[in-house]
Each structure stands twice: as structure tokens, then as C-alpha cells.
Amino acid sequence: MANNFYGEKIPSFSMLVDDLNLIKEKLNSLDLYSFSKFFILRNNEYNINSDFIRTKFSYNCKKKEEDNHFNTIQGLYILYKNTTAKYVGVSRNIINRIKQHFTGKGHTVSTLVYLIAREWWEDIKETPYLGTRKEFEKDLNNLKKEREIQEEMRISWKIGIIPINESYLAHLTELFLSCELETYWNEFGTH
Asked: What burial letters (b/e) apply to 59-97, b meaning 16+ CB within 10 Å?
């Protein structure tokens, strides 16, 4: 098995497919959690609930290369509205990425919320939005709508986590599960 530039083993595609099938089998028993399980609101700031995370998950990644031990979770997360998967994401630091989706401000960190708000705008105006993300958020009504969406997500959406160490498998699984679960908000256009 060859390595890439970063020293990662390049797996065979057949090995990846076998792993995908195992992950798919585990989906039916995937535990789903509310945002409030991962984060505790103190003094208007959402803080990581480390006790919950340590009891439910195993750290499998270092936040920084120089860290001496694993201190974060790498892999996939699935965001559910009611019982329907809406978005599959991949991250080297899942917990921080979840916080960005649910509390982040700005079009560069809370892209999912921007897309939901843009769809709301297009439904009201009955026309496609043709401006940039940055221009969208200059309108205070749009910004207010993004905060409302995040509040609703914090209250009612659920989060499933699938820790995955291998980058190749994580990225392929994101695409695979987006198709399998028919997630509405995933797109794979290049930036």
C-alpha cells in the first residue's frame, strides 16, 4: 500500500467499499444527541461539555500536530431535523465544527445556516438570490433569520457522530452517506 505526500496510507477502493458497508449497517443504531448535550450555556457562551463527550466518544485525533495526546474527534457528523438527515459533514474537529454550525456568525463558518436562510429569502422573494454570501448578511433581516435558524437548530435538531481516523474513508463516507440518506443540504461543487 502506497503513501501520499502527507504519509497517509492510500487504501484500495475495495477496502473502502467494505468499510462503507460496515458504516451503513451501523446507521440504524446511531445514537442521536441534541446540541445541549455537547455544549452548556454559561454567561452567554456555549462551552464544550467535556464530561458528556468523554463518556460517549473516544478521542481519535490531535487538535495540533505538537499535542502529545488525542484531544478531539475526527470523522463524520450527521445533522437531523426531526428524524430526517439533512446534512452530512466531515471534520478533523467535529465538536468545534458542530459549534460553528449551531452558533457561528458569518457566512464562512456557518455555511449550512446561510443556505437555509437563502432558501427562505428565495421563497419569500420568489426569485433566486444572485448576490454573494457577504452581501446577503449585510441585510439585517437576513442576519436575524440566520440567528433564528440557529436557535431552532439548537432546540430541535439532532446530531449523530461517526468517528473515523482515516481521511480517505471519511471523505468518501461523507459523499456515500449524503447519497444514501438523500440529504437536502449537501452539495459537492468545487469552490
From this structure: bebbeeeeeeeeebbbbbbbbbbeeebbbbbbbebbbeb
- Asked, for residue 159, whether it belongs to a domain, the answer is yes
38 within a domain of the structure (yes/no): yes
**Residues 27/84/183/144 CA torsion (nearest 10 deg):** -130
**pTM of the complete model:** 0.92
Q: What's the pLDDT tens digit per position in 20-67? A: 999 999 998 999 999 999 999 999 999 999 999 999 999 888 888 888
Question: What is the tens place of the pLDDT at every residue in 99-131?
Answer: 999 999 876 788 899 999 999 999 999 999 999
C-alpha cell at 43: 454567561
Burial of 22 (C-beta count, 10 Å sphere; 0-12/13-18/19+): exposed
CA distance 152 to 179: 25
Closest residue by Cα to residue 100 from 33, 39, 148 = 39
Q: For residue 82, tell me if it sits in a domain.
A: yes
Count of domains forming the chain: 1
Give the span between the Cα atoms of 151 and 157, in whole angstroms.
Answer: 10
Cell triple for 76: 463524520
